Amino acid sequence: MAQNPTNSNYLRKTISEVPVEYEHIAGLTLVLTYIVMLLGAYTSAIGAGLSCPDWPTCYGTWVPFLQPNIMANSPYSVLQIFAEWAHRGLAMTAGLFIAGTAVGAWIVYPDDTLVKWSATTALILLPIQVVLGGLTVTENLEPIIVTTHLGVAILILLSLLTTVLTTYLRNTRVDKPKV
């Protein structure tokens, strides 16, 4: 008899056949999120926080480097625009990984409350972070918004760190859960 693809045991078995372990994906998500934070700090340090003057696009386009007239007429350097543009793009990628990490936690660790809810906390904070990122630009780097944007990033990072450490510690036990 064929397996029902909606059956949770079937889903766990299918995921367990993937050659990458959940804790590796969660670890990659943590590292990627940290890199986004570092790139955000670098962007701020080089005065590039407003080098893409609109949001979510940059000069009304998704890839400003394909528009030579934008680069030529901007008051910002190509490096500044690239730093801000890369921060946004990498943040979007990290957001997808955060979503995957949260969903994966519920599938791979269905009985582990700490793993599920630490990953879910990062996912719940994600839309708040996205809105704050947009407000950072549209509100002209208002200090309280920039500070809150960093604060929420730290909370996301801590949630992911909890997820990663918990999964690694759970997997060092002899009685670790079988997927």
From TrEMBL:
The keyword Transmembrane applies. Pathway: Porphyrin-containing compound metabolism. One of its GO terms (biological process) is heme biosynthetic process. It is a multi-pass membrane protein. Pfam families: COX15-CtaA (PF02628). It is found in: Membrane. Keywords: Cell membrane, Disulfide bond, Heme biosynthesis, Iron, Membrane, Metal-binding, Oxidoreductase, Transmembrane, Transmembrane helix. The keyword Transmembrane helix applies. The chain crosses the membrane at residues 24-42, 89-109, 115-138, 150-169. GO terms for molecular function: metal ion binding; oxidoreductase activity. It comes from the Archaea. GO terms for cellular component: membrane. PANTHER family: HEME A SYNTHASE. This is Heme A synthase.
